[in-house]
Amino acid sequence: MSIDLDELVERAKEGTVGKQEIAEVVRELASTEDESRAYRLLYVVGRSSATEHEDLVAGFLRGDDAELAKLALQTLCTFWGLTESYLDFVRAFLDGVSWDYSGDVQLIAASAAGEHLRDHTDTGLLARLVELAYPENDNPVLRRMALEALARGLGDPDRETLRAGGEDRDGWAARVLARAEDRLAAE
Q1: pLDDT mean over 7-14
Q2: pLDDT higher than 90, residue 1
Q3: pLDDT score of 163
Q4: Can you give the pTM of this predicted structure?
Q5: In the predicted structure, residue 54 carries a pLDDT above the cut 90
Q6: I need a labelling partner for 52 at 20 to 30 A (CA). Which of 130, 158, 163, 164 fits?
């Protein structure tokens, strides 16, 4: 049977992919060499909450394909809430890896770190996010992601974090950094 990926991706977003279909997707994902197809297959597995395939998904963290690693990290940490089991990868990717040319894996790691810090104490992750959030960081996208991750890690509501300071972006950033530094000092 041939997999209609376009249809499966749409149904994965809705949560209506069946177990048999997931089994077929997993079989193909484990054997495909087509990176574009692998990405979409991995997306279906991730959005379908097929956590029984955690090992297969985690295998993509160990490669050097940034797109697949980014989606695998997002699946494991964001979609499935398994960050605690993948903190070593979150830390490594937060520091940056040579094959993450566009920095997308690092951005997902920052987001995962922030979510993890909502309910956990981890001074190493917190310190690294603070470092990345300083104005001296010459990567404005990574700086913004680090600030938003810190805000989420400090418990700010998502709606405020997504608004990210509105008109007073610099003031908001300074307040987030000050609160994060206070938390770091207290931990």
Answers
A1: 90
A2: no
A3: 62
A4: 0.90
A5: yes
A6: 158
- Average pLDDT across the chain, whole number: 91
Burial class (CB in 10 A: 0-12, 13-18, 19+), 61: buried
b/e 167-179 (16+ beta carbons within 10 angstroms → b):
eeeeebbeebbeb
Q: Give the span between the Cα atoms of 66 and 63, in whole angstroms.
A: 8
Find the largest Cα–Cα distance for the chain: 58
- 173 neighbors 144 (Cβ within 8 angstroms): no
Over the Cα atoms of the chain, what is R_g?
18
Q: How many residues does the chain have?
A: 187
Provide the residue ranges of all domains of the chain, joining segments of one domain with +: 83-186
H, E, C per residue of the chain: CCCCHHHHHHHHHHCCCCHHHHHHHHHHHHHCCCHHHHHHHHHHHHHCCCHHHHHHHHHHHHCCCHHHHHHHHHHHHHHCCCHHHHHHHHHHHHHCCCCCCCCHHHHHHHHHHHHHHHHCCCHHHHHHHHHHHCCCCCCHHHHHHHHHHHHHHCCCCHHHHHHCCHHHHHHHHHHHHHHHHHHHHHC
Q: For residue 5, give both structure tokens.
A: 């990926």
